[in-house]
Amino acid sequence: MIITVLRSGAPFWGRVGVFLEAIKFEHSVFALPFAILAAFISAGGWPDLMDFVWVIVAMVSMRTFGMSANRLIDGEIDSRNPRTAMRAIPTGEISRLAMYGYMSVAALIFVAAISQLHPVTWLLAPIPLAIMVGYPYLKRFTWLAHFGMGAVYLIVPPAVSLALTGTMPLGFVLIGIGSMAWVVGFDVLYATADFQVDRDQGLHSIPSRFDIPAALVVSKGLHLLAVLLLVIAGLVLGSHWLYFLGVALVALLLGYEQSLVSSDDLSKLNMAFFTMNGVIAIVFGIFVVIGEII
After folding, report:
1. What is the distance of C-alpha 208 from the center of its chain?
2. Helix, strand or coil, per DSSP, at residue 45
3. Model's pTM, two decimal places?
4. Residue 183 resides in a domain
5. Nearest Cα to Cα of residue 241 among 201, 294, 187, 197
6. 262 - beta bridge partners?
């Protein structure tokens, strides 16, 4: 049993809300629709209810584990960045010991969830956990660090297929690569906010390496690639026409997202990152799921 306290002296479970805010739990919405749509595609309609529940629990707990690790690993870096200096670890609102506690609980929930799914998930479970712990370190070594975050999203659709069926058809892999391109594109976009801080701290990103105008071009290219890959995935899977309508809406929304940011004006960056990407994931998920159940 894990017993720890936050700086305020409140019990471990008494400050769960503070922890959820610290890891931006609501941003699970970025990946959750991809787990849901993969479950419906795997089942060719409504998935088994309990399998579906365990998939969602596994995905959310895995992200919670990863974000906890991220906050711990980047705590010192965050404290030196004016944009992130008020996060819970730098301010001491949550102690490092408490964050390790939450992280451990998330890992235990993840293990419990995958134990209810296809046995192959036991063999592959270390992969997503290793990626979650590893990707925060990449910014210390390479401007390709964005692809570390993208790898998290890459594994979601094929992992769901494996968890439910023990197989990993090409279509799921293509959806995963497409979602990775989408995520890397918006992560590059978001990194423009920190390009000078990253340079000052010796951290690596596409904006800090190539400047903002080039980073915006890279982001646009990745989003175009994401749309293309999702189209190809739909063709490979023989998806319903609603799937392709969902992709078309994703393309329009990505175009709007890109229009919110320019090298001369980053004032709408939070809207482009937080609001639009949540909308994009939900819209695509809804159209794919409806296409599978009608």
Report:
1. 22
2. coil
3. 0.90
4. yes
5. 294
6. 265
